[in-house]
Write a structure and sequence with these properties.
Helix 10 packs antiparallel against helix 11. It is built from 16 helices and no strands. The chain is 83% helix and 0% strand. The chain is mainly alpha-helical and 395 residues long.
Length: 395
């Protein structure tokens, strides 16, 4: 009995060896990839509580609702905070030269307002000239853009039908009256809103420049633990360094693009080259969409100036080449890896903040997105969102 059992034991052992030989062991590369994946999951934890996600979504909706309806207050404050980040570096340089903070802050504000006034003065004269030529320009554009004549005629027929319906309604004894503010009251109201917002921004910016790091010190004092204090200092310092570096670099590059565009407009024979250079300088603050607007504006100006379509396309084509060189080669080399953002989210941010706050919102879209990414990258529960906001680095 024992002799017959012995072969079975050996057979069972052989079966076990055969079974073991069928097991495929992971390679070292697979193990390394699994370990890296686990580490990324630990570094970027996702919220697991559905109730917390719903509360976060409600909080974000309430925040956007407040930002939209309180834009008259929130927008000047946000603009002042962003300008404070931009001007803090030269402000510190002046204080190191033993210039009093009040005088240094007033000097920085005068430089800022002087730049705005210079841009307005530069644009006012040529823009008024083009606006005065608007009636004849429209007829010239209709002749040049004869491709769209059918669409224009359709709109005209629709407007005539609306007028006919209104006349029939009036003949029935009913009158339709459209009430609204007069042109003067509308312009005065808009000017007053802009002036109040500008005044609020300037006053708040003045006190922010004087206070310096007071808010940072107060925030550090109220945080409970040393690690929280250290994290808050790192986040605020990185935001200040990143925003000031981004705005400073972009301003220099935009000035270069504006100068090159104005020179190109002059060489092409386009009138008022300073106007087109200034427009290119301002539009280049808005990524992607600004360049599209610049191309369209220069193309329309070319249509109104030149006789052939190729001459009309030349200023817009040169501007496109200048923009591609700046955006694809020079600016990424200067900014390196500091501002690697998802381009799709940048466009969505531009459209969203333009809808929320207008042109100034579009100008603030990228700094706000950079700020959100920096905070998300530093706060552990938000690291997954920070990773989502980023993009692959260019090689």
């Amino acid at each position: 009995m024992n002799e017959t059992d012995a072969p079975n034991r050996f057979t069972g052992s052989d079966d076990a060896r055969a079974t073991d030989s069928l097991i495929v062991l992971p390679s070292p590369d697979d193990i390394a990839q699994q370990q890296a994946s686990l580490e990324r999951r630990e570094e970027m934890p996702l919220p697991q509580n559905l109730q917390s996600l719903l509360l976060l979504g409600l909080f974000i909706l309430a925040l956007f609702y407040t930002l939209y309806f309180a834009s008259a207050i929130v927008l000047p404050i946000t603009a002042a905070l962003v300008l404070n980040l931009l001007l803090q570096t030269p402000m510190r340089a002046l204080t190191k030269l033993h210039v009093p903070k009040v005088i240094a802050a007033m000097f920085m504000i005068f430089v800022f307002l002087g730049g705005l006034g210079g841009l307005g003065f530069t644009l006012s004269g040529p823009a008024a000239g083009w606006i005065s030529k608007a009636p004849e320009s429209i007829s010239r554009l209709e002749d040049r853009l004869s491709v769209f004549k059918t669409s224009v005629q359709t709109v005209q027929r629709a407007s005539k039908q609306v007028e006919k319906i209104a006349e029939d309604t009036a003949n029935d004894g009913q009158s339709v009256t459209v009430k609204g503010p007069s042109l003067s009251s509308f312009l005065f109201s808009g000017t007053r809103t802009v002036l109040i917002g500008l005044l609020t921004t300037v006053v708040l910016l003045f006190f922010l420049l004087i206070s310096g790091d007071m808010f940072l010190r107060r925030l550090v004092e109220i945080l409970p633990t040393l690690s929280d204090k250290k994290q808050a200092v790192e986040i605020l310092r990185e935001i200040e360094s990143s925003i000031s570096g981004y705005l400073g670099t972009i301003s220099v590059m935009n000035a270069t693009v504006g100068l090159a565009t104005g020179l190109a407009a002059y060489l092409c024979g386009l009138s008022d080259p300073i106007l087109w250079g200034t427009i290119a300088f301002l539009l280049n603050y808005i990524p992607f969409l600004g360049s599209l607007c610049g191309i369209s504006v220069l193309f329309l100006a070319g249509l109104l100036t030149f006789d052939t379509i190729w001459q009309a396309l030349l200023p817009a084509g040169i501007y496109l080449v200048i923009h591609l060189i700046e955006s694809e080669m020079v600016t990424p080399m200067l900014l390196a890896r500091r501002f690697i953002l998802n381009p799709i989210l940048v466009i969505i941010s531009l459209v969203f903040w333009y809808w929320m706050w207008g042109v100034l919102g579009a100008l603030l879209a990228v700094p706000l997105l950079v700020t959100v990414k920096i905070i998300c990258d530093r706060v552990r529960p938000l690291m997954a969102l920070g990773h989502f906001l980023g993009a692959e680095a260019r090689t």
